[in-house]
Structure formats: C-alpha cells, structure tokens
Write the structure tokens for this entry.
Amino acid sequence: MNRDIPKFLFKTILFLLPLVIVFGYVEWQLRGMKTTYTIKKRDFEKQLDSVEILVLGSSHALYGIDPAQFSWRGYNLSNSSQTLYYDARLTEKYLSRLPLVKSVIIPVSYFSLWYRLEDTKDAWRMYFYKKFWDIGNSEIRVTDSENFSYTMLYSPKIAFHYWQRGFQDTNVTGTLNYNGWIPAKPHEVNQLTDSLARIRVESHDFVHFENRLNDNMRDLERLVIVLKKRNIDPVLITTPVSELYARYADQEVVTKNENLLKNLAKRFNLQYFNYFSDTRFSLSDFNDNDHLNPQGAIKFSKILDEEALSKHYGNSRRFKKN
Amino acid sequence: MLFNSFHFLLFFIVVTTAYFALPQRFRWAWLLLASCYFYMAFVPVYILILGFTIIIDYFAGIWIEKAEGKKRKSLLILSLVSNIAILAVFKYYNFLNGNLSYVLNGFGYQNHIPELSILLPIGLSFHTFQAMSYTIEVYRGHQSAERHFGIYALYVMFYPQLVAGPIERPQNLLHQFYERHEFRYERVVSGLQLMMWGLFKKVVIADRLAIVVDQVFKNPQEFGGPELLIATIFFTFQIYCDFSGYSDMAIGAARVMGFDLMKNFRRPYFSQSINEFWTRWHISLSTWFKDYLYIPLGGNRVSVPHWYLNLLAVFLVSGLWHGANWTFIIWGALHGFYLIFGLMTKALREKTWQLLKIPNFVQSFLKTVTTFALVAYAWIFFRAQTVGDALFISQNLFKGTGEYFLKKLSGGDIMPLAIDFQTSDWLLAFGAIMFMEAVHFIQRRRSIPQLLQSQPTALRWAVYYAVIVVIFFFGKFASREFIYFQF
C-alpha cells in the first residue's frame, strides 16, 4: 500500500477531530432548540378541534394579527416570509382536522404575488417547512446539507450566535402567544424614517418577479377552491403599511395587486379588504414601516373582527373569546 | 452541481476515493462516468449536445490526420463549422434574430422568424473551444488524433474543467489520462489548499459582493453616484473572486487526482497595463484567442493599421464569446480600444515618465491604479443588463460621489446608502478583499503553499482552521451559480 495514504488518513482524522467534536456538540444542542416552527406546530395541533378562524400569511400577519381580538377562537398560523405556496399547503395539510373552522384570513402583502421563498435570502426557511411540517419544495434537493444537519439548516453563523447565547430558544419564541401571534418588540433605533421606508420598499421591489405571478395566483386559487369546497370562507386582506412605506411603494404594483385580488374575489364571491393605505393607522401604530406594533396589531385585529368577521357572520353567532 | 455545494463535497470524496482505489485500466471510465453525472446534475438532456460534438470531433480528428492537402483543410473547416453552428444555435440565434428584427423594422418590414425558447447548455462555450483546439492541433500536426473514444470524451468532459475551464489544450491534458497517478500526500494537500482558497474567494467574497452588485445593476436608475461606484468596484472584485475561485477549485480538484491543469489567473489586478492584464486574466482563453485567431490573422507581423484591426477583431470576438448581447461586444471593443490606444501612445508615455523623473515605485503604483480603473470601467458594460443601463452608470458614476465620501470622512450628515447590506457584511467584504490582496502581494515574491509548508504544523493548521471557520461562518451558501457558467 502506498505509504502516503495512511499518512494522509491519519493526519486528516487528527485535523478533523476537533471540528467533528464541536460540530457534533452544536448539532445535539440545536436539535433540542425550539423555534416558531416547532412551537406553532405543537400549539396549533393542540387546538385543531377548537379553531374557528385561521390566519395565514407572512410577518405582516405574524406581528399584526392577534386572534385574541376576534369574537371567535382563532389561530395565527403565519410565519416570517411565509408565501402563498406554504399558506396553501399548510391549510390543505390540516383542513380535514379542523372541524370548526369557518373562515380563513389570507393576507396578501405588497410583494406576496410576485415572489417565492426560494427567490429570497430567506430561502433557508424552505427546509424548516420540510423538516417540521413535511411540506416539500421542488427547489430542495436530496443532497442539500440542510436536510442532514441542523447547523446547516440554521446556517453556521446563526448556530454560532445561538451557541454564544447558550442555545436558548430563539428570541421570538419567548413572546409567541398560544394563539400564534407575536407582539413585535420595539426596535432599539427608530425605524420609521423616510430613508428606511425607501430601503424597505426597495428590498421588497428586489424580490418582484413578474414570472412568479402565475404560480402565486394558482396557489391562491387552489387555496380558495379547497376552502370553498368545504364551505369555509376565504377572506382576502392586504395588511396596513406606514404612510412612509406607501409613499415609496410602486403605485403600478399597488394597483395591480388590488385589481388582481378584486377580480379573484369577484370570481369566487369572496370578501376582500384592502388596508394598505388605511388612514385609521398612523405612525404610532407601527413598529417599523411595514409591521404593526402590539397596539397597532390589536387595533387591526379588532377592525378585522368587525369588518371581515362580525359583519359577515353576525353578532348572534359569536362564540366565547379565546 | 456547484463546487460550493454539499452535493459536490460528497461527489468529490466518492469520485476521488474510488479513483485511487480502482486499477489504472478502469480509471478513465470512472472519471468519464463521474463527469457525465456532474454535467447531468445541471440539465440532463444537454449531455446529448455534448455527446454530439464529441462524436463529430473524435472522427474529425482521425480523418484529418489521415487526410492530406485540401481534404485535410476541408475536414477541419467542417468540424469547426459544426462546433460553431451548435454554439450559434444555442447561444447566438435569438441575439441575431433580435437584431435582424430591429434592422428590418427600421426599413418597415417585419421579421417572421420565430424566437427559440431554449436554455443555453451550461459551459457550452468552454467545451466547444476545448474541442476546437483539439481538431486544430491535430490539423497542425502538433497532436496525434486520439483513437480511444472514451479518452477523447474524457478530454472534453473532464469534470473539474468541464463547465468553466480552464480551456485546456490536447497536448497538455490528453496524455495525462494514460498516466498512472499515485496518491501523493503533498500533491493531495496542495490540491485541497487550492480548493479551499478558491472556495474562500467564491463564498466569502464574491457571493457577499454580489448582494450589492445585484441590487444596483438590477435597477441602476434608482441609485446615486456613490452606490454606482461602489457596485462597479465590487463587481470588479466579485467577477475575479467568482471566476478565479472556480478555476482554483477546478485546478485543485484535478491536482488531488494527479492532473495538472493550466493556470488561469495570475493576480490580474496588479497589472500595470491592459496588455499585461490580458496575460494574467483568463489565461486559457486569451492564449486560445492568441493561438487560434490572432496569430492566424497575422498577429503583429503585418502593417500597423492591420495589426490594430487584428487586435480589435480578437477583442470583439472575445466579447461575443462571453455573451450574446451588445454589452459584451462593447466590453470587448473597449478592451481592444485600450490596447490600441496603449500601443499608439506607448512611446509618448515612456518619454513623459522619463521627463517627470517619477520614482519607479510611484510609476508602478500609478500604472496599476490606472489599469484597474480602466478594467473596472469596462466591467460596467460586462455586468449591465442593457447598453442603456451601462451608459447611465457611466454618466452618473461620479455624480455626488466625491461630496458623499468627503462628508463621510469628515463625519458630516449624509443620507445612508440606498443599499440593503448589513454593517457586518460591509466590514467582511472590505476585510476579505484586503486579505486576498495581501495574499496576492506576498505571492509576488513567495509561494503561499511553500511559505505555509515551512511553518510548524501547529501554525499551519491554525491557518487552515481559521480559513475553514471563516468559510463556514461567513460564507454565503445560497447556491449562487458561478458567473462564468452562463458562457
């Protein structure tokens, strides 16, 4: 046998040993950590029998809709960067186990119709849906490291950050309510500035892909059809943004969004509520340019309850609050 | 399959281990099989196109060798036309058709030729040029025709350099497939070092800079001078780190298995002239053009105007090789112009340097900075989506830029840059570029691997650990393709 082979193997093992030990330790610790995905799955599955109003959507709904303000028992199944693709599949996955659900609130934000999770820097979230909810995505390959390793799933940088914090559960999990809502924590620096609004809109315009519209509309229609078949009311909404954000938003996109959703609502006889530039919301209701703060979220949830739910179902059919 | 993926890591370990475990007579077949799998991991069906060109050039090589006189030349032309035709259909058809429509519309006619909706096979320009160099070398008598079909297929398909080069010559690569490569510790370590360095350049630098570059070049009209200038400089480093990073990984992967691929980059941004730049940048392509286009056109052994025309022609073709878009052609033309202007003013410039009596190191510095600026300016056209975008960036590159940086330096009140890029990313981007250039600076006099080898094991391993940690923690692993894959 070539003498160089055992020499190489010995040195490689010696070199990799510390890395393997550290990696193994981090993997073991990460495996036990809770995230919004694991907690939401656990909590939601406990409440399947009692949920009457289901809220889907991205961070705009996650921080902006508190089901406790509804007159019916609700659960907020939204998550950061959750797209219509995942909204549709999550709902389909649980629909047969939701006997009481009467209405599903489907938020469609400024950018929702124009991107897929895999187009963004949040693409890593695909693996969380796969790992924890078993919802696949054609972009996930069998050989992707995220399928095998929690360090790669969270990214080494985040994993290191968690290590520094003693592998405590993620920041948001501490404030995650049993009904799925997260009251947004105030930012250390004021986010409600003109320049940050412009940057925020630009970051959303950056993930605007015309060719994604058809896929997203198909997912939205798929969701609506599935719900309608079960006599569940889909309610389309556009969540509020700050006046600064609205100022920089591309008006053509805003109008297109509204027209597309109005047409869909008309075609399937749905309710659609557009709160994008709703003057009932002022800067004091926002945590940043497109996320409501807890006060704004409560206000918005009450408006939703009044306009999208109570008006439709009537006060007489109200159940006890959560 | 990208070099910066977990998929490739598994592939590389399996392929290399099996390669050394297999008897010599099976190794070529194993490498060919691995290369097919590697290529098919992108778009499987395109292996048929690759197979078609391999069959044509395999037989062309044998027939050219056997033929004599005019027949020999006809066979070469037939082979070259076949290769170029494939390139033309997949790469240039829509471009030519679009331009035809534009011209016909100008005369009030309509173009009824339909557009083709096809994806460009990955690395098409690279393996086509490598295949063409084989038939040309056989025709010139510098290389005997390869009789072993499998070995010839492997010459075109050898996975480390299949999709983005280096574009090899048959004299350098073909014979290596017949040689027995023993597992050599030093060689394997050297290959792995080079792969690690390439990965660092790709995932830590190039893909980080891409965040800024993509934002600005997507909609340049939405940005001011400072952002346009930063994005231009960032792209200058991004494309170097992306492409040279790929080349390093390709050369390193081949070296681990005992193969020597040609060097593709030699610290190009230290060049003191555009002429020198082209002896240091994408060396395998620039020498390809020199050997197979520039010299056959007459090179510099013709009248001066003819010589300049030859240079311009080569750079226009080089631009077109990179992509079917006017932006690439203008990029090529700019480099051609730089070279010609450089030649025309060479005597005058040398006289001026002598008259000004500027110390040599200042001269070198000024020449390097000027060359860098000219190259960076040309990259605007290379990266921009349209000629209009490139012109807009050119016109606005310095609009408010000086004022911005002066205010920034003096701590004045300025608008933040309209780029979504975290502070840590700015620091890492600049830090990593400085580190890379420092390594390049040292490399001018000493070889880094040799320098490392002369250090105690503990220090050497500490350096390896540090680079691995930086790659692991600060690398961007978002499966971003290498820029040169599109060519």
Summary: The first helix of chain A runs from residue 4 to 31. The beta strands of chain A are 53-55, 74-76, 103-107, 233-238, 271-274, 286-288, 291-292. DSSP finds twelve helices and seven strands in chain A.
